[in-house]
Amino acid sequence: MAEGFDYVIVGAGSAGSVLAARLSQDARVRVLLLEAGTAREPLFTRIPAAFARLFKSRHDWAFETEPEPELEQRRLFIPRGKLLGGSSAINAMIYIRGNPADFDGWASLGATGWSYTDVLPLFVFSEDQARGALPAHGVGGPLRVEDPRSVNPLSQAFVEACVELGFSRNDDFNSGTQLGAGLYQLTQKSGARWSAANAYLFPAMQRANLVVLRNAHTTQIQFEGDRAVGVAYRAGSHTRTARANSAVIVCAGAIGAPQLLMLSGIGPEADLQRAHIATRVPLPGVGKNLQDHPIAGIYRHCLQPLTLRDAEGPRALLQYALTRRGPLSSNIAEAGAFVASPESNGLPDIQFHFSPGIFLNHGFQRPNLHGFSIGPTLVAPRSRGQLKLRSNDPFDRPLIFGNHLRAVEDRRALLWGLELSKSLASTRALAAFAGDEYWPGTPPRGAQGLESYMRANSELLYHPCGTCSMGTDDLSVVDPQLRVRGVSGLYVADAS
Predict the structure, then answer these.
(1) What is the value of pTM for the model shown?
(2) Of 59, 276, 301, 463, catalytic
(3) 177: left (phi over 0), alpha (psi -120 to 50) or beta
């Protein structure tokens, strides 16, 4: 017999951690949180500069796209956290909210309750801002937000380079205005990562009414008629069930959430038939509208030995162990800027990530040299992809068709960002640091050469979303209250 709970939450990532904590505040409510990840979190999750060490480990789902038509048929890597805290436990910790115009755009399309005015109090309520209470910031909330503790001089010089080229200085990208250049604030506490699990879940796990199961891979949502009443999950070699008397809440992320819906018979009818799954609710938007943030970078030698090259050396390790400062407290992408390309409508569509080190190929390539990286990132892509089931086996990875840079406007905007990166590296502010180009070695000549470089080297910056889109149109999967259309008792509450 299935064990009964009021709420069953699938996925203990950023969203699942928050929901488990908030729902279990009511001692009368029983909550089950299922997480497919392993039972022990590694030390690397707390050391900021070591986050890339977790990529393609047992703590990472390590997804990848199908061959990308506009990117030389390359498969692009998509790390996703497979542990408590999800991707907030393996990311670069930059604290960035959505642009206010994005939220207002959602509201204008019928997403009642999602305007910037509506969501700002929730951001403020959740925050513990190290700078103190401000109009757009709060103190005393569970999510600690701090300034970087040991800023590299190169990062400061990058901000000055941006100002030299006419960018405004922006000391708070979350004040309501994103345009400009500055240092990023971080989800850290005293120089260590502060994930959603640290902020919300770990304190809540002391409650008797919250049960957290790890190594529990949810395989299907269970129904009685048109109501979701529970889930089936695999724990070790055993398949078990859990009943949800009030609701099943899917927080499995932009890849896991649509996959679970389709495995449960909710999705595009033709795709379900190809996977030999009976259709329960024909929702054509499940798996569609996939978006992410393409990034392409330039990499320069640094003329001075002050980069993050030796961040994991004995001296830096000792400094971090004693003070929680030094290069190991760096989130790698220390500084950045938001700018509007000629392809935008005046809103920022390019975000720069500056690293006082060579962060190449997701950190898998670690050249033994001093250098820095400037990475323009497309934050408002027009291109859309989709996700499909590979089979009806819940352990079979889905097919991910990113279609990244398919839209010509996306290619032009990112190319513009690369050209601007080269200009930034040639400013007076960086003149004392910028040596020869490290990658690709021979600088591409002209716009055509730079576009070829962009196609051969663009990667993704780990923000897949949109595959269970919210809205009021025929392709929306959930309504503004996050209820899955066509059934009751089922919600999707995550980046999808």
Answers:
(1) 0.96
(2) 463
(3) beta
